[in-house]
Amino acid sequence: MTTPDPRPADGPPKLTAETSEPARSGGVHQPWRAAVAGIELVLAVLLVVFAWWAWGQGKVTIALPGPGGAVDVVTRSVGSWLSGAVGAVTVAGLLVLDAARQVVLAVRVRRRA
């Protein structure tokens, strides 16, 4: 079951039946959002550390005997580790963006109409 949107896109906010004031959502100035932002930043740092480690695991160096006793060094890339590292950094970036949003919502003061 859905509820009607108090903020329609085509006009002013709808008024509730009990009062003549528009229905408000509690979106801003919620200090607990700062804790959520802190947790997201810690997770982002952990994901970056994991990505650094996974990127190192994704490169394998192999020494092969070459002609005349020389040693040829070949570096191979393991795609699963490298893609995991890229995915971890992408998620970390999204967490940092959301943490910034959470901080803004935690400290912003609601305007009085």
Structure explained in plain terms:
The chain is of the alpha+beta class. It has a domain at 32-107. Helices cover 49% and strands 12% of the residues. The protein has two helices and two strands. It has helices at 32-57, 79-107, and strands at 59-65, 71-77. Strands 1-2 form a two-stranded antiparallel sheet. A hairpin with a 5-residue loop joins strand 1 (59-65) and strand 2. The longest helix has 29 residues, at 79-107. It starts with 31 loop residues before the first helix and ends in a 6-residue tail after the last helix.
Concise structural overview:
This protein has 113 residues and is an alpha+beta fold. Helices cover 49% and strands 12% of the residues.
Give the rounded overall mean pLDDT. Answer: 84
The global form is: elongated
Beta content: 5-15%
Number of strands: 2
**What class would the helix/strand composition place it in?**
alpha+beta
Poorly predicted residue ranges: none
Q: What is the helical fraction, as a range of percent?
A: 40-55%
Secondary-structure element sequence? HEEH
Query: How many individual helices?
Result: 2
- What is the terminal separation in angstroms? 31 Å
Query: How would a crystallographer describe the biggest sheet?
Result: 2 strands, antiparallel
Radius of gyration, CA atoms, in whole angstroms: 26 Å
Strand ordering within the main sheet: 1-2
Transmembrane segments: 34-55, 81-100
Biased composition (Pro residues): 1-11
Keywords: Membrane, Transmembrane, Transmembrane helix
Region (Disordered): 1-28
